[in-house]
Amino acid sequence: MSSATAETLGSLHDYVEYDHATNNFLEDVLAGLRLPSKRLPSKYFYDERGSQLFDDICELPEYYPTRTEMALLRTISDDVAELVGDGATVIEFGSGSSTKIRILLDALNEPLAYVPVDISREHLLMSAKDLADSYPDLRVVPVCADYTKPFDVPEIAGEKVRAGFFPGSTIGNFTRSEAVSFLRAAAIDLGHNNGLLIGVDLRKDIGILRAAYNDAAGVTAAFNLNLLERINRELDGNFDVAAFEHDARWVPDPGRIEMHLVSRHAQDVTVGGEVLHFEAGESIHTEDSHKYDIAGFKALAAEAGWNSIECWTDPDELFSIHLLRVA
């Protein structure tokens, strides 16, 4: 764990970086590509370029989750603020561009601090500084960490209540057991009787789902393929990116979109000095996006030690936002 200098922080109040945020990239990539069914962890999508591409995805007409969730947040923000309470420290897991948090901060009564947690250092600091400039009375304390691994939420002087924020249905990227593990860890981070506001994508028409992950402009494809470009840049890889194609497919059981990178022909690729073989049509599984029904997610949260306080959905029932409280 390390802290940044005052020059680096600028308008920020502090900065914490955990070693696990960056140290295992090569190890994780090689471990995944050695598997009989090749995989890569989706957390590595989010280097600076990947984070920018994801922001572009969120603006696409086919990608309903972001605009639907933001509209719903605006509708329920006053109710959420009343339930959370005054003087809250808000911890956002996987903060990205810290866009949605502004809706919540504008509604909360005298929020004390904002702690964005993200694995992409450059994007994290840029977004945190921008938000700190917009909210000069708010303490902004960015934490560069893999939020799926143990880390300590910084203690904020004068803290009365903590509220977690986990939007975007990122919980859907986890398997059920991983989701339970994350929610249990978040309960410990936030503490007894504190809350978590979490976005959860709902099951819906398959055509809507397929279009959302196979956009006509090809931005999601570029986002997926950027993972190979990142490996080339950072791990001395020699992927021919044009020799792979993006594929997003619906898997009805357990109910998820799977993203893959499919090899167009038989080829050998070198990463970190190791040669890896791909057959024609062989894929690298890069991400899962599980979709839930409301009862199913409430049951998952209860298994992880949370009480369901409130649940809201948009008029078309595409997306849900849940307020949970540590039991």
Find the count of extended strands (DSSP E, 2+ residues).
15
By CATH reckoning, the class of the largest domain would read Alpha Beta
CATH architecture of the largest domain: 3-Layer(aba) Sandwich
What number of structural domains do the residues give? 2
Measured between the Cα atoms of the first and last residue, the distance is: 30 Å
Q: What is the alpha-carbon Rg in Å?
A: 20 Å
CATH fold label of the largest domain = Rossmann fold
Quick description:
The chain is an alpha/beta fold and 327 residues long.
Write up this protein:
This protein has 327 residues and is of the alpha/beta class. It has 2 domains: 28-57 and 206-290, no CATH class; 61-204 and 292-326, Rossmann fold (3-Layer(aba) Sandwich), CATH 3.40.50. The protein contains 10 helices and 15 strands. The strands form 3 sheets. Strands 1, 2, 3, 4, 5, 6, 7, 8, 14 and 15 form a 10-stranded mixed β-sheet that branches. Strands 9-10-13 form a 3-stranded antiparallel β-sheet, with helices on one face. The model is unreliable at 1-8 (pLDDT under 50).
